[in-house]
Design a protein that fits this description.
Four copies of one chain form a homotetramer. Chain A is mostly helical and 213 residues long. Chain A folds into two domains: 13-66, Homeodomain-like (Arc Repressor Mutant, subunit A, Orthogonal Bundle); 67-213, Orthogonal Bundle (Tetracycline Repressor, domain 2). The first copy, chain A, has helices spanning 2-9, 11-40, 47-54, 58-64, 68-91, 97-113, 122-125, 130-139, 142-158, 168-179, 194-207. The longest helix of chain A is centred in the first third of the chain and has 30 residues, at 11-40. Chain B binds a DNA duplex (21 and 21 nucleotides) through residues 18, 21-22, 25, 46-48, 56-63, 66-68.
DNA sequence: CATGAATGAGGCTTCATTCAT
DNA sequence: GATGAATGAAGCCTCATTCAT
């Protein structure tokens, strides 16, 4: 036990302690950045405000991130990664494509509601343009999402679930818009629970708007 | 009398000429601003670049618009106004709500394709956040669009065309997302003609994704 | 007479006709410039506003004056010249220095009231500083005024009218401040007529503030 | 106890140190601004030059003052406040009004000589006109000065010290001009010491210019 | 001559980033 | 490591001046 406790004090563990603290702080920064970003958008989100919200100095931000752009990219990457893993899990389920898509929608709404969602919120944050856009497309797996969805819809067509007359591209595009429906921009929509929203959206998306005669 | 009428044209012509030139210049600026805006978004669109693209000096912009914000708002207002008029025309048609909604979608895609569309592109331009958002909501009739659509969908329900189980709010939200599908952000979508895009979107929106058994 | 009338049409006279018109317009501009200057001060007086107030275009101003600075200098010079002539007349009068100084004060107040006064109003217009100041001192005879006043006060001392214990410089300085008392800045002072103001100022200046026992 | 008291000084010292430096810097800026202002006047005083004169960058100015206007107003307010306090002290003295007025004049000259004077120098700085003027009148106690002086002169009349035939307004106006006599604009006047200037001015103001027979 | 649209230099201000303490 | 004062590039805007019509 003495050895053990001595070992704990050793550099590797000492650094892993520091590292843990560091990572915690990084997480705090990312959360604050997320909040400001959603409230103000990329261009009106200032490093000052992010730092102030975490309760640290501006300079400290730069000990964690090389630049504002970098901070944002890390943020996006992290959330994107988590979300894509989730999607991957859902995609490999045994259920129908229909069910899996509903599941994806639901998780989208939930993640937005929890304030941990980016892949789907880029447009809402003003990152879909200008110089930023290119770096986003390069470094962030929005493409990954599109690929996965494309695969899924194709599978649906192959299985005979979906109307083959509609191009997959269009299905994917519309589906992605549906994913971001529960955005932070339309407060009136946020009164619904993710589950209730899903019900209607799903009904509309799969069965159409028209009354069945 | 011919002579007389020709003479009468003189004075107005004089002022007309200058005014026409002025309006043409204004239109050129608005077009350039539109282009830059769509490419770079509001915050990265600099007055310098707009001026350069028109081929005039920065100062000249301020002979036509009293500030950057003003330029943007005029741009939005102008296009918005035209588009809302169009919607109003379509809305008063005799046809089914279904047909009228298709018509609206089609006009949306056309106007986006022509580069004269804003009501529907605000999100794509980064005006849906921060300080700007409030002024937009005050001054631009995005609300007007929502009201009109709400009315239309309610009429659809009353007429028995649409599924009354789906809340109108959700119908409207989704429809608005469909309107902006043909955005300038997704080049792959723009290979389709507005008419072809409409066909698939409409099929999906009204009849659903699922294969009819 | 015919000859005379023909002569009038001749170039020299023709030009003197044009010249008359030109001078009239120049006078109009100077008057407008004076008004704006007194209202807004030199730096907030814009060429635009001066032109607008005369009812001509901005470009036309430059047909009469080479620059804004020039316009101002001409204005000052003109009014200065007139005023200095007046002073010279007064100075050569036979009366006591006391009387002549009162006369000068009275004419100062009158000229300010009429809106034709500069020599005395430079400070009130913001021309007593910066780059402008040097040119003013070079080109405008504010020095001329000081010289004249100095001469007058010295004469007063020689004649035994004034207290020789007070340095002439100080007399002159104070007297110049008294001349600009009736400025456009203190509306409460302008309720008094020039004559009434003079009475009090003169009493104070010559006899002092104290109650005679 | 000594130790304790020394320890107590620690934490405050830490913040005191930075704060002191900050205040020193602020004071340096205000002094530079004062100098530029007196030399160039408000409109030709550029933030660039003020910064350059302090030896800091333009951006740093904005860490201390949020705008050019603010910088100027702070400058004026600070000096104004000090000066008005001084006046208040003098006003409550037991001596004759005559003596107190002399004292005020003397302090005016001294403060101008030291380069810490504004209440009295507004005209000399070009702040007596245009848009600025209103903010000055609102925020700066030039009115406060006039009120105090008015009170003082009325007291002088009541006490039987002053000539009641001269309106108080005029007394105040003239007195204020005398206060600014020792301005930075007339170098020839500055060769006199404040005390010597006072002697002559006072003699003239109270006893008049005329030689006593 | 008269016009007024166009110019461009110059001023104010913001904010991401750096660096001495 | 942490701080926050300092920097300076870059953006918006004004206005005296010019020039084609």
């Amino acid at each position: 036990m003495v050895t053990n406790s001595e070992l704990k004090k050793q550099p590797p563990k000492a650094s892993s302690l520091k590292e843990k603290q560091r990572e915690e702080r990084t997480a705090l920064i990312l959360q604050a950045a997320y909040d400001v970003l959603v409230e103000k958008g990329y261009y009106e989100a200032s490093m000052d405000e992010i730092a102030a919200r975490v309760g640290i100095s501006k300079g400290t931000l730069y000990l964690h991130f090389k630049s504002k752009e970098d901070l944002i990219f890390m943020l996006i990457e992290q959330e994107t990664g988590k979300f894509l893993s989730l999607i991957d899990q859902i995609m490999t389920a045994e259920s129908s494509v229909h069910d899996r898509l509903e599941h994806i929608l639901l998780e989208s709404y939930r993640s937005i509601q929890d304030g941990r969602q980016f892949l789907v919120a880029l447009r809402a944050i003003g990152l879909n343009q200008g110089a930023i856009r290119d770096r986003i497309e390069e470094q962030v797996s929005i493409i990954g999402l599109m690929e996965r969805l494309t695969r899924l819809f194709e599978e649906g067509k192959t299985r005979g679930e979906f109307d083959t007359a509609i191009p997959t591209t269009i299905m994917v595009s519309i589906f992605m818009r549906l994913m971001e429906l529960y955005s932070n921009e339309q407060p009136e929509m946020n009164d619904l629970s993710p589950e209730n929203l899903l019900k209607s959206v799903s009904q509309l998306f799969f069965h159409g708007l028209l009354k069945k005669s």
